[in-house]
Amino acid sequence: MADENMDTPTEKIEETLNITPFDKSQTNIDDKEMQKIKIEENSDKTNNGQTNNDPGNCYCGKDRNLNIAELLCAGCSRWFHESCINYQLGKLVPFMMNYIFMCKNCSPTCVESFKKNQAPFPQMCVTAIANLLQLAQKDPEQRMLFHKDRDIIPFIECHWESMTTMPRRVTQSWHATIHRALLKDVGTLFTMDENNTDGQLFGLTTPDLVLIKPNYEAMIKGGHLKITEMGVQHVVPLSTGLRGRNAKRKFPGEGTGAGPGKKGRGSDLTAPKLPAHGYPLEHPFNKDGYRYILAEPDPHAPFRQEFDESSDWAGKPIPGWLYRALSPSTVLLALHDRAPQLKVSEDRLAVTGEKGYCMVRGSHCATRGTWYWEATIEEMPEGSATRLGWGQEYANLQAPLGYDKFGYSWRSRKGTKFYESRGKHYSTGYGEGDTLGFLIVLPNTYDASHIPNTYKDRPLVKFKSHLYYEEKDQVPEALKALKPLVGSKIVFYKNGVSQGDAFIDINKGAYYPTISIHKSATVSVNFGPNFKYPPQDLVYRGMYDKAEEAMAEQSMADMLYLSENEGKLRLDTFSL
């Protein structure tokens, strides 16, 4: 455990107050050189030679206030009050040294940036004693020395999440580590007085609390900061993470560093690469009254950067508005929106049934306009059958299309058309080798209901390294909302020949290309643009064209959501 190995080189804390931990393996600074950096050398100036008491401190221009958390800018070396900073900083305590902060005047993007690092125990002791000293100034005694068990450890325990990104220790073994850290740096960081009454009491070698600050000079040499023509810039690490059921946050570095032969989970912020067909091979299915929508990080969401760089969200649910529904770039058969027993081909353009009727929908839907797609019956063994057509999102996946009010189908046997389980004669049947066309005409009107759902207010769940929005089915409400859409219709084609209008004034809604199969028939689909039998009697769009349009619609829906909720989407007020 890290708290049981204080003598290792990577855990050694240099003999100075203003130091922030960094990886010495990434720099050529040795311990002797670092020990030359003394508090006295920095007592009158900060890293850029400006005094700590510069009257230009903070945006407000007011002097420092040691009773509240303040941050030192790595660029201009000015102090900024926590209350004056727009960036959502999370929990902080005064006299922290384990952070990197850039004010908006120094940031190349003119936006504040903040990163809290893991604090080693000696540094946590300095912060704790400094806060105790500041609090003691209000007491008549004005104590300068504090007891490990009565003062220092209780303060650290109370403010653990504010002081460091380390996970809170489950056992109390870290108490002994605190004691070793205090004793080890007596004379450099700490003073100690021992008497028969109180035992060992600890203080700071330099009680001037104004001097406690991050050592940005060491961070520059350590690679955490870099000097460019635009000034000092924060180097953002590539690996931080999210994890867990209910999409809980992962501590930076957690799950990494697996030994030889072990599988390390690595970082979840670097989303696993999707297969060529654009959807995870292992995924949750839409079933049992819930639907799952694949999500991706939304770079335009407010406080996205703060969330990515903060560790305060470790183990907590992720706000849904930080993500967005992923819009597939190609129209294919949906892997998640199907009955699990159906076998979808690797290219997601063919499906084979098994046993009783069950269904698969396409990945995209139509809400207005005229759309067309084709299906070819590749195999139809004896006793098998299909019902193909158009279905809404609530059409039952474990039933034939046309079983309920959410779908309209054309059956292979006898050419019967189905809606709400009622079959009517429509045309002659079709079979193996036939290519069928499916045309839907929806009035090309502009309606608020055409805007796709953003799902940003839904909870996120994690499944096999990917995040999904989880939405509960609202079937009763959807049934009540069904109304005929005047001017709409569905037409079926067999080998290029129109079979006439199958359904007129269908229910209003979003319609997906839908296939339902009985037993082991195989159906391939063609969403365009090169159709075998393109309709000649009207203007239409192939379903392939819906992919690009859906991306634009989804982006617009996301922007509307973020605009309508501007000022309400905050990390500090988020709750499920």
Automatic annotation (TrEMBL):
GO terms for cellular component: Set1C/COMPASS complex. InterPro entries: ASH2, ASH2-like_PHD, ASH2L-like_WH, B30.2/SPRY, B30.2/SPRY_sf, ConA-like_dom_sf, SPRY_dom, Zinc_finger_PHD-type_CS. Residues 244-271 are annotated as: Disordered. Signal peptide: none annotated. Keywords: Metal-binding, Nucleus, Zinc, Zinc-finger. Pfam families: ASH2L-like_WH, PHD_ash2p_like, SPRY. GO terms for molecular function: transcription cis-regulatory region binding; zinc ion binding. SUPFAM superfamilies: Concanavalin A-like lectins/glucanases, FYVE/PHD zinc finger. The keyword Zinc applies. SMART domains: PHD, SPRY. PROSITE patterns: B302_SPRY, ZF_PHD_1. This is B30.2/SPRY domain-containing protein.
